[in-house]
Every structure is written in C-alpha cells, then in structure tokens.
Amino acid sequence: MKIYLVGGAIRDSLMDLPVKDRDWVVVGSNPDEMLQHGFTQVGKDFPVFLHQQTKDEYALARTETKTGPGHTGFKFDASAQVTLEEDLSRRDLTINAIAAEVEESDRLGNSVKFGKLIDPYKGALDLKSKVLRHVSPAFNEDPLRVLRVARFAARLAHRGFTIAPDTQSLMTEMTRSGELDHLVKERVWQEMEAALKEQTPVVFFQVLRDCGALQVLLPEIDNLFGVPQPPKYHPEIDTGIHTFMSLEQATRLSEDPVVRFASLVHDVGKAATDKNNWPSHRGHESLGLALLDDIKVRLGIPKEYAEIARLVCEHHTKLHRLKQLRASTVLSLLEALDAFRRPQRLEKFLLACEADAKGRTGLEQRSYPQGALLRKLQKAAANIDIKLLVQQNSANSDYGKSRELGELIRHRRGAAIDLELTKLNTL
Q1: What is the pTM for the complete model shown?
Q2: Residue 367: strand, helix, or coil
Q3: How many domains would you assign to the chain?
C-alpha cells in the first residue's frame, strides 16, 4: 500500500493559498485491507474511506467509465492494480492531477508538508503558466466538468488564469453533443452556487456562454444578449452586457451569493417584451417573474435565492425612481419586501438594485442615494408607537373600534413616510 497526497491541497499550496481539505489516493490496496486498517468506507460500492483520526478522505486508485448520459460511474476491481498515473489521468484539470509523497507522521498532523511531486501531466507547469487544461480525453466522460472548469476560471481569473484553447474546444464539443441536457439539476446548481461565491463569478457565466452551455443551462440569461436598451439609460445598450456588468457590481458590493444571483437575473423579462417596442421594455418586471419560476424549477433554486430574485425583478425600477413615488406606493414596496419583519431582506434587495444602477457603461461609480433613502423611510415607518395605537384603538380613538388595528398601523406608517418625503421635497 502506498499513499499520496493529491489534488487541491497540492494545487493551493503551490499557489500559496490556504489549504482547506486534504485528499489522499491509495495505490496497491483494496477495501478489505482499508477496513482492517481502521478506515470507514463512505459508501458500499464507493472506494473512498475516512481516516478514523483525521477524517481525511482516502480514495483507492481507480478508473472511471461512463454509465449513462450526464453521469459517470466507478469501475473498480479489487483485484486490479490501478497505477497512480492511471488514477490521475481520470481527473479534470492538470493542476488538480498532481500527487506527492508524504511522511506518515505528516499525514496524521494538520500540515501540508509534502516531498517529491508526481506530476505526469505537467500540472505544475500549467500552474506556472496560469493555464486551465484538461488532463486527457477522459474529461468528456462527465459533462459536469464543463461547469467545474468554468468555476475554476471564476476562482482564478483575477490571478491571470485562462482556459487552454484545446480544452475550450472540447467543452464546446461536449455542449453540442447534448451531454449537458442530462445533468442532474442538483449537480448543476451546486456548481453554480459555488461559482457565485468565487472571486469573479461573471467569468463562470462568460465561460459557459463561450462554449454554448449558458443557452442549455440558463437560456433566460443567454437570450438577453443582442436585446437593445435605450442608450440614454444604458450606454452599453446590450442587455446581456448590462446583466454581466450588474453581476460584476454586485460582486464588488457584496459577498452574498443571494445578492449576486438576484443581480444576474433581475432583467430576464426584457427578452420577453414586444420586439416592436424595443429598445423600450415596458412591463419587463412582471414578464420576468414567470421566467424566474422556470429557472427555479429547472435548477432547483433554494427558497431564499428565488424569493430575493423575484423581489428584485419585480420592484427594482420602483427603487430607481423612489423620489417620484407616492407614500402609499413606498409603503406597499416595503410591505412586499417584508421589510418591517425581515429588514435583512431589504438590505439584499437594496444591494442588488444598486448593482443594477451601477452596471452600466460609464456609470460604475455613480452614487445611489435611493438605498439610503428607502432605509430612512423604512425606519420612520417602523418607529411608530404600535402600543400607543393599540391603546387608542381600544379607547375608541379617532378611528373607532370598528377600524382594524392593521389598517390603523398602515395609515400611520404611510403618514410617517409621507412626512419624510415632504421634508425631502422642501429641501
């Protein structure tokens, strides 16, 4: 039995990045021997084991074979002797296909000290050259690798990494073959959510678009490219470009993937408006809601992502013209956001709307006072004395016992908002 450190721990260590997890590959062993050494098997037919002390994953060297469209399966024979090089050949990128020898004492500690590198596919050279390159033709056995490469591009683009032309071509071929159509939605969303947390998530979606995968996975976004907008408000004109610029701004404003996703999908309705009226997109807010429902079902979007995305899609233009709104409309907006009970939703909404306002050519540094103003109006409305209103209602005040308390509270909140707007307009 020989044990090697492999994959991300080596890659990140060579790049002077923090190492989060250590993965190991075991050559020349079998499940029975692993169990005898005290390892715990992850799954009955899955050749991965957990170390009883460190809880690190130890995988038996293996090869993979395709079991169906959009899926891969393990081909493992306890009697077969899979070499380290054969195991590394099945990995996605050369920078993830580097192994190293590690002393047993170091394996039991928390360090990432390692000795001689085993690098048959020149991953260290690609790290130095800042290239994302597939290891072998086996890359196309799992279409999810298209998304994984896009995610690594999103993680490393700020360091200057690019995708090798032959890898880009292979990703395009895989997309055209229809393999991505069969991906399980949970796997797609897992990669997409992870990408939204990366340094430059817009790169993830650009890479998918370049190889045709965006049209397969998120056609609502891909369809925005080529849709014109009024140059007066959108100097960049193209809605797809604006969408990616908004995501870039959201990335600068927030690390929250929920905010970033809402910024990505806020304008999906513009591709559904009447082409005869372009570049105007009246009603795109409501048209986008049905498209968001489609995305939610197709990708299994989590509840919070879906809810915030719908709120931004439906109401972002209201916030942009906040100073022109009536107090009753502002109150309705705050109620739609559930801003009095869940002010954190308000903050996510405001950040996504600010990203939209700044995601325009030449307007990236513009101020966005609407956010501060809505916070102020929410605070004024939330500060009314509800206990006093309960007492007044019980004592048959101006509104009488017949008036529902909820209506009374809403009336006072509206009055508080109106007062703040009046002050603003008199300045």
Answers
A1: 0.91
A2: coil
A3: 4
